[in-house]
Amino acid sequence: MAQTYLDFEKPIAELEGKLRELEQTAGGNDINIADDIQRLKGKAEQSLRTLYAKLTPWQKTQVARHPDRPHFEDYVAALVADFTALAGDRAFADDQAISGGLGRFRGRSVMVIGHDKGRGTDGRIKHNFGMARPEGYRKAVRLMRLAERFGLPVLTLIDTAGAYPGIDAEEHGQAEAIARGIDCCLDLKVPLVSVILGEGGSGGAVAIAAANQTMMLEHAIYSVASPEACASILWHAAEKAREAADALKLTAADLLALKVVDRVIAEPVGGAHRQPERTIAAVGDAIEDSLKALCGIAPEALREQRRRKFLDIDGRARP
């Protein structure tokens, strides 16, 4: 599959394009240009490493939205055995922007819930680009309560620009559904581990991310609003999204310093989309570490730890 390059990656695209041309020349005509290929490959790798070592918040936002980043379905396929999807909120409908079900994660029975952005045009439309309606959050609450009933840990995988902002969602109680999702997360008496895979947008993310352990991939973002929405609200100009991204403190490094997240999971150089299998394995290892630490804690203590963590964020974030 052809590599999709972001705007700021154009120098890398040129180098890697030349590299592919050299490799094709060497393969087709058997010309001994191995030294040139190795030299160019080293230059491309070093340029990529240098570029990704100093990404701006806006560039990280672009990486977090990269269409080739692994999605919910990729993580489930690689990490969760015997996955059985569970559908519907038992009240109105089945919102496919949020998926969930039972399975076994490295030998442990778990409930897995997450935003599903879909792939390709048809898949993205089917899953509404990962932007859930109220029935999606009500489905998540139903599945979390089901896990609690059977004493199963809950894993939530976050990747959404935000909750769906349409009129029908508001008419069906979007704000109430998000609030109940947060309340359910804080009230659960089983371990809850959340990982922000790409975008963690507003209440649409926190509704299923108020966890005992909240982790982020290195180039993921997590914010009260998207940079574009923030720019529209503050400056009435969406083109100021770059400035908004700087102000929002939405990067993993910023949020770890503010104690909003508990751990940052390193990505391969160039982002998760370049080596998805390696990224998925790293996320699996981080989840396993968290579950080992949490599964021996008493139910009431888990609940209290989670509530205290969020009540203390404001005080801990101050210098």
- Secondary-structure element pattern, one letter each: HHHHEEEHHEHHEHEEHHHEHH
Question: What is the mean pLDDT?
Answer: 90
Q: What is the percentage of strand-forming residues? A: 15-25%
| Main sheet record | 8 strands, mixed
Q: Tell me the count of domains.
A: 2
Q: Which superfamily, in CATH terms, is the homologous superfamily of the largest domain?
A: 2-enoyl-CoA Hydratase, Chain A, domain 1
Number of strands: 8
Helix content: 40-55%
C-alpha end-to-end distance: 47 Å
Over the alpha carbons, how many angstroms does the gyration radius reach?
21 Å
CATH topology of the largest domain: 2-enoyl-CoA Hydratase, Chain A, domain 1
Q: Uncertain runs with pLDDT below 50, 5 residues or more? A: none
Q: Based on helices, strands and strand pairing, what is the structural class? A: alpha/beta
Which architecture of the largest domain does the CATH hierarchy give at level 2?
A: Alpha-Beta Complex
CATH class division of the largest domain: Alpha Beta
Number of helices in the DSSP assignment = 14
Q: What characteristic shape results from the CA principal axes?
A: globular
